[in-house]
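So, can you check what follows?
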Amino acid sequence: MKNNLDIDQVIQNKMGYAAPELQPKVIDELDQSKKKSGSYYTKPEIVNLILDLVGYTVDRPLFKQSLLEPSTGEGAFLIPAVDRLIESTQNYTKGALFADDDNAFNLLQDAIRSIELDDFKHQFLHDTIGRCLQQRGASIDLSHRLLSKWLVQTDFLFWNIPVVHHFDYIVGNPPYIRIENITETLAKKYRSIYKTLFDRADIYIAFIEHSLEMLQEDGQLSFICTDRFTKNRYGKEIRRVVSELYHVVHFLDIHNSQPFIDEVSAYPCIFTFRNAPRGEARTLKMDDVSPENLENARKYLLEGGEIDDDRIETHTIKDWFRGQDPWVLNGELAQELLKKVEANHPLISEPPHNIKVGIGVATGATSIYVIKPEKVDVEPEVLLPTVIKDDITHGFISWSGHYVINPYNNDGSLVDLEKFPKLKAYFMRHEELLRSRSTAKNNPNKWYKTIDRIFPERLSEPKLLIPDIKLKNLIVLDEGNYYPEHSLYYITAGTWDIKALQALLVSSIIKFFIWSYATKMRGDYLRYQAQYLRKIRLPIGITKEDCEELKRMYELGDYDAIDRIVSRLYNLTADELRTIQDLVQ
């Protein structure tokens, strides 16, 4: 684990300056500030790679260009960037950079902008960078003048609006703060400005959007942050912006590694975006950010060289993903996962499950057959209580009092209307419409039949109800009280404990089956049709203890726990589960 003396080691390594030991009070305040701001300290070797990826190197006249760090923290990026800037400018001035304060100020004043909101971190940066500059030969006065230009204390998401300052390089590690962890008032302000803050998008998404707006033509941005936005629902708007307006130059999948000084579970990635038309992207996946691997990554990403190491996976993507499509870098990944969850697991309708998947009754004239008795006077013997999709929008049945008219005898023949005078009178009032249906035209003597036969015994059978089009798995239990209407699909228990089956069916793994096969509707909605539900494969050998735990987690509403249980039943790793969760969110 890191103590905050590590930042001084960075200073010593990069700036040739050995800072005095930080006092315990300073260490504590930095730790508290880090927790509040969602900061993770990036390792120096990762910082140097990112600076190289955007081309912020000493062989360029960096004083003629501009670099922005949107959330500077303790200076993990800023310190080596200043070091490179000074070295580059010293080369240009042949070592005479600090011979004249005014000349040095004019050369350097616009080269860097560092944005930091936190009071303590801002002061820490001022003191630390000031000492670094003075160690390299700058006067105290020049240091203060430069820092007054370079360091900006403000909320980055409210700074430079409308955008008037543009930058050649933007680097950093944006804060990972969940939107629900900031005040509602502030969240509304952010959302009113940043259109990519869609659904439950976290604050780092707005940092990416605002930073991209500030790129000069052909400028480059490189961040290290969580890779959640690349696949899940809340990232779809930022994916669209990047895919339509920018060139994805590099993408590094390093979520199994530890690029931060602290041990954190942030699932990190590194990406480089250029303000330029779409072009070829180089992608790389590695599970260890060792110096050797980082050097190999640098050579491949910047030069396209071959990597002779099975531990590093590389791809060249000629045409980056378009629109809001998830960025599944290994195009075969989803298929491989689907094959794994399908392997050795029988289809839902096959033994030993023996579950029936069906759809509610289609009548061809819902407004006539689905009624409320207080509004339509027919014999009660022909009425079955029916559940419609609007009855289950909250995850349980809130019955609206509808009934479906059953015009059949138990043997499937149509009832004799002469024995049901009220029903006959009702049907006769709507005879023209009923006869206009295709099913009636094909069977003129059975003009009052429904498209599907009604089986009264289905009413008393426990079943799970699923609406056709939904964003998430909505699986509602009917313990045997209703007949489903045509807008609902149903699943029987088969050999399963129906409540355990309900819990399993709301998991991300089951949604992955639907996601893999079903039609995607506008707005990421999926069609939960019988043909796709029948493609679900269920695990075998599930124990009574598993069933009880699934039911308990469902009662608690702990869907993450359900996912963990179900992933174990399908023999998935934690990483495979997370990939599935990201794909289907």
